[in-house]
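User: Predict the structure for this protein chain, please.
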Amino acid sequence: MPIYLDHNAGAPLRAEAAGAISRLLAEAGGNPSSVHRAGQRSRRMLETARAQVAALVGAEPRQMVFTSGGTESNNLAIFGAITASSRRRKIISSEIEHSSILAPLAELERRGFEVARVAPDSDGRIDPARVLAAVDSETALITLGLANSEVGTIQDLAQLASTCHNSGALFHVDAAQAVGRIPVDVAALGCDLMTLSGHKLGAPAGIGALYVRDFAGIAPVGLGGPHESGKRAGTPNLLGAVAFGVAAEAAMSALDEESERINSVAMSLLNRLRETIPGLRLNGPLIGRLPNTLNLTFPGVLGESMLIALDLEGIEVSMGSACAAGAVEPSHVLRAMGRSAADARSSLRISLGWNNTAEEIDAVAKVITAVWRRVADAEPPSEVSAR
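Assistant: Here is the predicted structure, written as structure tokens:
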């Protein structure tokens, strides 16, 4: 049985979500916008799910807009904020954001907008003072991730809100990786917009949400009917929303206990690998990091060689993003943190989740060490340093 350690890419479906999907399929619900009995039954299901997702971040149900996932939520936040802003032409972000933020910002830059990208420190932290220094009267939006998907660094974003609001800009937080893993509260962060993703915490892929603070002006980016309070046209994904709601409720009910358990298991794995792999390096901070995330540089090997060898042993992890040609590119996050291209190509991300056990991690520690030794012995040193 494979051991899945890629929860930051997508968590396995929770039993609660699978059960909710089965029940909804059996009931053959109607369109939530329809006025007949079946439609209104579906509407009640949708609104129950909205309340469950809102509770995960301390929001009001009316403030949650269901989307197709984190990518759409980020696009809606960014393009919606820019479209609603009549004249402002500046966006502030960082160099280590997810592609669903980087790509919209690159497109806006192509259209003539100014994009200020703040560099991180060597642990992947963004200095709030550098963000605040970039804010001016032209700033329409600040958009930043709460927790980095590759190295797990948790950012200190709460102090940005007052300056952002005083300047008239909107403040968007991508919390897709953080929600369900650490406590997240929209009021404490003071954000106007927040991205959530269902499949990161045990719902199926294809469902997400965007928190929109009351009176925060964003324009819809897709035209059609007046669904989701006029912010996102199209019949909502009822199946996904219901599963997202129960997965959010399950994650919230066990948040403190699971966070502590997963952190303990992850630290056990890190300590054991440090004992058996000389020169192993943790990318990101030891403290102030998502409890489930370990990004490790393995000396003397290529990350893709390790990944393939581990996959053959039934251990499923990940590394940098793949380009269209299928070659693995060095992580833009690690490069921005000052790692060399060679170190970035020698790094793997191990991300644990709700279904991983201490017994699994005991086995993983042994397998990873054995695979590293085998790959290091077989890997030509010149190839490792050259790539």
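The CA atoms of residues 142 and 171 lie 5 Å apart.
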